[in-house]
Design a protein that fits this description.
Layout (H helix, E strand, L loop, with lengths): L1 H45 L3 H50 L7 E2 L1 H18 L14 H15 L6 E2 L12 H93 L15
Antiparallel strand pairs: 1-2
């Protein structure tokens, strides 16, 4: 009876060892499968639509940045044109004042005509120095510049001469003196009026720049918030996944350890050891 018990005990021990080996193989396979599944779920967490949202916001921010940059360049051009418009208005007015220096606007002397023509040519050159500006959208000052350029073309076609300055409204005129005097006055008034119009336009462009910058700052804040929140969320989700699969593996391992311990107890704890002098000790 003891002989059978010893051999049964040895067989149980071998079977228990084989069971442990088989479990190790199955456990390794389960572990590899869980790690693969964990990696897939981590990829799903990482590769969500956050990157797409961030890219869209960044593109919008960059677009606004470029738009605001063009608006600043446009505003600088408007400021330059406004300054030149004011000079044109002043120069045209001064040219008329010089022609009336002797208090007699009924006629020009040769010297007065020459001085007026020189002032007119300088004025035409300044008119043509105005910058043609373009800005996408409805805001534009091209019509302002075109009006002044038209005046420049008309002034260039007229020349003062020594002699009579016809009275206002004379038609036809004796010479170019009256048309030149009238056009200088009109050009002066128009240029001054356009400076006021440019003030309004510059205010609109400046507000556009302010609004664009506000939107850019808002988008920057969105980027920072999304980045911080998403990093925290993804970190927590990934740690949660690791904990979940780690607990599953520990549960499987612990369950086997309990079963294995019970098996070891059944193998070693239910069979009495043979006598010390027994040959059966060779199999124990």
């Amino acid at each position: 009876m003891a002989y059978n018990s010893v051999f049964a005990n040895a067989y149980s021990a071998i079977s228990q060892a084989a069971t442990k080996s088989a479990f190790e193989q199955r456990f390794n396979a389960i572990q590899r499968g869980m790690i693969s599944r964990l990696n897939d779920e981590i990829d799903d967490v990482v590769n969500d639509d956050t990157e797409r949202r961030l890219t869209e916001i960044q593109d919008r921010r960059d677009e606004l940045f470029g738009y605001a940059g063009k608006a600043r360049e446009y505003l600088f051009g408007l400021e330059t044109n406004k300054s030149r418009m004011f000079e044109i208005s002043l120069d045209a007015s001064n040219a008329l004042s010089a022609a009336e220096a002797d208090g007699d606007l009924a006629s020009f002397t040769a010297e007065e005509a020459a001085a007026l023509n020189e002032a007119k040519d300088f004025l035409v050159e300044k008119m043509r120095s105005l910058r043609f500006l373009y800005f996408p959208g409805d805001i534009s000052d091209s019509s302002f510049v075109n009006q002044v350029q038209h005046d420049a073309q008309s002034l260039e076609a007229l020349s003062a001469v020594a002699g009579t300055v016809d009275a206002e409204g004379t038609d036809p005129t004796t010479n170019d003196n009256r048309p030149l005097v009238d056009l200088l006055g009109e050009a002066s008034n128009r240029a001054y009026s356009l400076t006021e119009s440019l003030d309004v336009l510059m205010g609109a462009v400046n507000q556009l720049i302010i609004d664009s910058e506000k939107k850019m700052y808002g988008l920057e804040a969105d980027l920072a918030e999304i980045t911080a929140v998403e990093v925290q969320r993804k970190t927590e989700e990934i740690e949660g996944l690791k904990a979940k699969y780690g607990n599953l593996l520990r549960a499987i391992s612990l369950s086997f350890e309990v079963s294995s311990s019970i098996g070891d107890m059944l193998v070693t704890g239910t069979t009495p050891a043979p006598d010390k002098t027994s040959i059966l000790n060779l199999f124990v």
